[in-house]
Structures are given as structure tokens and as C-alpha cells.
Amino acid sequence: MEWRHLNRLSHLEFHSLPKLNSLPAGLQHVTTLKMLTISHCENLKTLPRWIRKLISLESLIIGDCHNLKSLPNEMRDLTSLQCLGIFSCPELRKRCEKETGQDWNKIAHITTDDSHPKKMMEMIVIFVLVEYIIADFSSSRNVIPALGFIFSFL
């Protein structure tokens, strides 16, 4: 696939890809990407060093990727990154703990981490929506009332 031709792509999700052990190398050419979500990719062990080339990336959400245990040093180069959400990845979460985690110095520049309530709520809404809609299309009708409740707090 010619990723470099996806010059308008702003949101991308990798969800429930058990054989995914690395992000596609061509993704580094999608410099317009603003939001990247990676969830339920149990064989993903590392994020690539070329992640620094995603110069427009503002939000990165990682969930249920239990073998992803650390972040690359190149996270420091993501100067547009405003939000980092880590859900159900206990080891990675611990490494990213504010000021004490081993990976904290790689992400300390992020202006809004997941402790910011409004941004965190937006990220949770996106994560929950994707979980319900992709995992069980028939249950998506149950999400709409819950979203009305969540959005009333935003």
C-alpha cells in the first residue's frame, strides 16, 4: 500500500489485530495524521523509532496492548502531541507515571496528559465507542444514551 498518498488522513485506528507486531512502515509518511489509536493488539511489542516523523500527531491512545511495555525515546520529538491515553496496559502505564516512571522523561513535554479531565473524557468516549461499535455492532445502539450522559459533562 502506498501510504504517502494518504495525505488527508487525520485519524487512524488499529483495533483487534492479534498478528500485528509492528506498525506498518509506510505509516511514517502520513504526516497529516492527528490521532492514532492502537487497541487490542496483543503482539505489538514496540512503537517504531520513526514515530517522530508523525509531526502532526496530537493524540495517541493505546489500550489493551499488554506486550507494549515501553515507549521509544523518539516520543520526545512529537512536539504536536497534546494527549497520551494509556488504558489497560499496566506495565506501560507504570513506566509513564508522572515524574517517577522510567518513560516519563520521554513524554513530559506533552501539554495535556490523561490527568486533564475534559481531554481524558474525550479520549474515553472515543475508546468506548470503538470498543462497542467494532466489537459488537448490534450493541452500538446501547452506546448512544450513555454518550448523551458523558457529553453533558464536556
Automatic annotation (TrEMBL):
<protein>
    <submittedName>
        <fullName>Disease resistance protein rga4</fullName>
    </submittedName>
</protein>
<keyword id="KW-0433">Leucine-rich repeat</keyword>
<dbReference type="Pfam" id="PF25019">
    <property type="entry name" value="LRR_R13L1-DRL21"/>
</dbReference>
<feature type="domain" description="R13L1/DRL21-like LRR repeat region">
    <location>
        <begin position="27"/>
        <end position="88"/>
    </location>
</feature>
<dbReference type="GO" id="GO:0006952">
    <property type="term" value="P:defense response"/>
</dbReference>
<keyword id="KW-0611">Plant defense</keyword>
<dbReference type="InterPro" id="IPR032675">
    <property type="entry name" value="LRR_dom_sf"/>
</dbReference>
<dbReference type="InterPro" id="IPR056789">
    <property type="entry name" value="LRR_R13L1-DRL21"/>
</dbReference>
